[in-house]
Amino acid sequence: MDFLENYEPLLKAFWYIALPVSIFFGLQTIMTFIGLSGGETDVDMDADGNDTGDMPFEIFTLRNLINFLLGFSWTGISLYNKFENKTVLIIISVLVGVAFVAVFFFLIKQILKLSEDNSFKIENTINKTADVYLTIPESKSGKGKVQISVNGSFHELDAMTLSTEKISSGAVIKVIAVENNILIVEKL
Fold first, then answer.
1. pLDDT at 69 over 90
2. Within a 13 Å sphere around the CA of 10, how many CA atoms are in the beta-carbon half?
3. pLDDT, greater one: 58 or 46
4. How far apart are CA 34 and CA 114, in angstroms?
5. Structural domains in the chain plus CATH codes
6. How far is residue 134's CA from residue 64's CA, in Å, rounded to a whole number?
7. pLDDT in the model for residue 39
């Protein structure tokens, strides 16, 4: 750290922030890629991908502090000789630090959009069309079967109809309700 002895106090402060933060960021990045960080993203989401708090992300976290300090310190170092007014330099450095945190939020939000829940929920069949596989008896007097596509995968499910006519195999139906895991359908 001998190279810092001849620098002005503000530039020294930027370097004293930048060096340890950069090392910590490098270690944090390496640990994330090799799987030692526990997969923590500092984002509170529930199982459906919805935010659990008032804000979509926690603002005051170690990761966000590191991102802010990286942007702040390296901007201060990079632009130190470009600005005579050091107050303007500090303001610009703070804005870049905030921008680093905002970019991190944006990237995490985009990554979370990539995760998709394709688990089958029978409620997702309502208002969908399907093909009758086994004849469906009239007036809920018995069960038939339909083949229906939900989220790109086919399912064979039990079905009943309220209609006074049976629905023959091969007919196209629409699901109007679900009762006790049995589809209630009508002929199209």
1. yes
2. 17
3. 58
4. 21
5. 2-114 (no CATH), 122-187 (2.40.50.140)
6. 58
7. 47
